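In the previous chapter we treated chains in isolation. Here, by contrast, the input contains two separate entities that must be folded as one system, with a combined length of 535 residues.
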Amino acid sequence: MDQLISAILIGLSQGAIYSLMALALVLVFRSTRVINFAQAGQAVVSTYIGWEVVTRTGNYWLALPIAAIAGAIVGAAVESFLMRPLSKRASKGAIAPVASVILTLGLLGVLHSGAAIIWKGDQKLLESPVSAMGITVGETVYPFSQTDFLIIGTALLVMLTFSFIFQKTNLGLALRASAFQPEIARLSGVRVDRIRAIGWAFAGAAGAIAGVLVTPGSALSPNSLDLLLVFGFVAAVIGGLESLIGAALGGILLGLTLSFVGLYVGTSLTFVVPFVILILVLLIKPSGLIGGRKSRNA
Amino acid sequence: MNGLVVSGFSVDHGAIRAIDSLSFTVTAGQLAAVIGANGSGKTTLLRSLSGLKAPTTGQATWQGISLLGKKPEELARQGVLHVSDGKSVIPELTVKENLALGGIWRRDKKDVAAATAEVIDLFPRLGERMSQSADTLSGGERQMLAIGRALVSRPKLLLLDEPSLGLAPLVIEQIFQTINDLRHKLGLTVVIVEQNAMSALRIADIGVIMNLGKLVAEGRASDLMNDPALRAAYLGY
């Protein structure tokens, strides 16, 4: 029973981070049909900025919002200065359908090497503001910590905020309309280009928060968030690639699965399981386990 | 010059000339029916007037101001509302959200509420389905929603692309009747692009008949309807 509760809590905590990365990918994909590989690079640069804040002020709580704002600015800039001109220039020929993906791969390389030049390639530590030691209840030490609760709480707050913005505000309505039917949105008077940049900004912020939350568990280096990107993709695909709720649930499902595999089967399998899930979902139910046609509404 | 003035207007799709030096004028407050078969360039005309496509040559002005080189969202904000092919609604959004879309950028929130109430008054069926998603609506209801959304923006020039497409004859008559009532009530200038020549010309002041991108005839709608040669060749009855 204790082991089960531990597996669930660790799964939720890791899954919450995957959910945030999946949200970042889905937000971009459904509004601009771009698979954004550069998200790992955008997130790592934002996390380095968070690390700078912690190093200078010792305040993780300040680092979290600053990294999120930095991530939002980088995201909006990528859409405004790279993706939008690209969609106009590379609109014809064989390159048109893949130009954006190739550009994001190129940008990932630029951001990786840029981070390596500015912050060097060595591993930086970003300490959690709360204990990362297992919580002790009576005589038993559980494998989950206060940091796990911090992760779950922060991710939940981000998702609730997104959910509120998307469902209850005019900005959210404009974001959804621009994603579903950009032409009709334009004809209704919505400034779709600006709204898309805001969508990329939200995605950048979500990726940055994922980066700042996941880093205390390991260390920060230019490539340290690449695996998170892959797990984010798996979660997004489980969720049907277009649904924000699907992305959130996909991340949780992946986190729980990995946690159960780790505890009950063995940690040697944790790296292969996500990829097997990815392939199986694509082959058996490519529309996603959680998503469906309806999922676009959310 | 008041109203919509299109002159020497040509639009190309790659190597194909979709519209060839078209000129016509719609006086403010008039309803114009642009009639033509598939491929006559009608839809391209509306797309070019609303900023979705750039013409190759020519001019188009509304109340003396050029429509060209502007984004569709900016034209919509200036009162030029294009309801695109048939049922231009966002199926993933609710009826309420589709209507709201026409007003989220407007400063005068009181008037947005008033305009929305007027639309619900005009189309009570929409009022009953406010929280349903738009893809549960029938074809006629979608057309009402698309027009309703445009009305929430307080249009001055309304460009309607085939409002009759895919609708039952009775519904078509209702929609055209509503459009006619609206323009008298609100003083709208309306351009309707239609294959359904009879229904459109009956409520129109002027008719513009197009064939393969070229102007065939332009004049008072009643004159066009009574011209035996045009009826046989282009109006199909």
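The mean pLDDT of chain B is 93. The first strand of chain B starts at residue 4 and ends at 13. Compare these points with the single-chain example from earlier in the chapter.
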